[in-house]
Amino acid sequence: MNIFGKHVLIRAIEEHDLPALHKWANDPDIWNMLAGWHFPSNFEYQKKWFDNLMNNQSSQRFAIDVPGLGLIGTANIVDIDWKNRRGYHGIMLGDNDVRGKGYGFDTIMTIMRYAFEELYFERLDTDIIEYNKASINIYTQKCGWKIEGVRRRWYFRRNRFWDNMLVGITREDYFTLVEQNKYWA
């Protein structure tokens, strides 16, 4: 099943995506902007990660595809709590030349539509490192997410500690947003 946004196609990650994913997995400029801890990885590690994707029912990981460009990044809904209808969302755009063109916004809107309209989730959450102003702005200013808390001195990057911005959106917030911005109209 493919999930269609206005400009992006959200699809399953395929084995032919692994060279690009491996390249991005070893790009410190990308990973310094994301939550979690990352180590240099070889291609075999990337392949094992891919092979294990289908074994986890609480994680959905997707490729972000753009017609004419192909694979531009990944999105996910992980740590899914099916009983309480919630999950943790993340997005990663690979190469610099695809950023700032609306693909991230369309991806987040598409993932929210999938989560709230297809999976009937009640909420989505994410974490954003405090210096990732582009992500904070797109989630909170354009996509209707709310800063719900701050974990102080949570991430160690660039030889110091940074705060973790806890950001979330509810089903109600999403439907209010799409009613106001008419995104899917």
Automatic annotation (TrEMBL):
It comes from the Bacteria. Keywords: Transferase. InterPro entries: Acyl_CoA_acyltransferase (IPR016181), GNAT_dom (IPR000182). Residues 8-168 form the N-acetyltransferase domain. PROSITE patterns: GNAT. One of its GO terms (molecular function) is acyltransferase activity, transferring groups other than amino-acyl groups. This is GNAT family N-acetyltransferase. It comes from Hymenobacter taeanensis. The lineage of its organism: Bacteria, Pseudomonadati, Bacteroidota, Cytophagia, Cytophagales.
